[in-house]
């Protein structure tokens, strides 16, 4: 019997597709591949769980290391939320997934303002969709807690996923790293989220 928890997240059909769709080596997002992933999720019993495991794997492995891959992953996640149903939403409204999702904003990952806005806006939209899923209260609790801590959620959609912008940020970061010695590098990012609320992440 196939064991979801022993297999590598990228070893399943939807996992293989997810790895490809979130690969930073792409010239641009592959919408045909993204929609194929949505179809697999909707048409198979294990699709939702396997897809979210693969997405979590990419988020954890790329956070703070590969911003292009992170943006492709968020694009895929957004498409899945919009095109897949309750079974997928149940995997999103889950403490473990939400923990990994919000770790993108951890200070050590130095999230850009654009990334912070995208993550927070997605979370806000999930709450407003009022999903009828078991983890609904967990999702609402995370949202409420962040607001109580002073987090400002975007009221309108952030800018579109623009790969050139991400690549430009990579160039800037690389140049800064070359000019700055390790002893001069600050441990606290300038982002308004991370600098004030890093204690949310362990």
UniProtKB/TrEMBL annotation:
Residue ranges of every copy of the VHS domain listed in the record: 21-154
Signal peptide: none
Gene Ontology molecular-function annotations: clathrin binding; phosphatidylinositol binding; ubiquitin binding
Region Disordered, annotated ranges: 174-202
GO aspect biological process, one term: signal transduction
GO cellular component, one term: endosome
InterPro entries given in the database record: ENTH_VHS, VHS_dom
Gene3D superfamilies membership: 1.25.40.90
Chain intervals with Polar residues compositional bias: 174-193
Entry protein name: VHS domain-containing protein
Organism in which the protein naturally occurs: Paragonimus westermani
């Amino acid at each position: 019997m196939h064991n979801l928890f022993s297999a590598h997240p990228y070893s399943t059909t939807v996992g293989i597709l997810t790895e490809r769709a979130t690969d930073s080596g792409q010239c641009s997002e592959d919408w045909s591949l993204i929609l194929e992933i949505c179809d697999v999720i909707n048409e198979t019993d294990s699709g939702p769980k396997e897809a979210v495991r693969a997405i979590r794997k990419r988020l954890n492995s790329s956070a703070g290391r590969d911003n292009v891959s992170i943006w492709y992953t968020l694009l895929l996640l957004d498409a899945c939320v919009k095109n897949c149903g309750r079974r997928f939403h149940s995997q999103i409204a889950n403490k473990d997934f939400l923990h990994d999702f919000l770790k993108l904003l951890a200070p050590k990952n130095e999230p850009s303002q654009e990334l912070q806005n995208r993550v927070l806006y997605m979370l806000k939209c999930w709450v407003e969709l009022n999903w009828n899923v078991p983890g609904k209260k967990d999702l609402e609790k995370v949202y409420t807690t962040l607001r109580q801590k002073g987090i400002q959620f975007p009221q309108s959609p952030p800018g579109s996923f623009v790969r050139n912008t991400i690549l430009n940020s990579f160039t800037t970061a690389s140049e800064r790293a070359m000019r700055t010695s390790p002893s001069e590098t600050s441990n606290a990012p300038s982002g308004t989220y991370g600098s004030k609320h890093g204690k949310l992440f362990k």
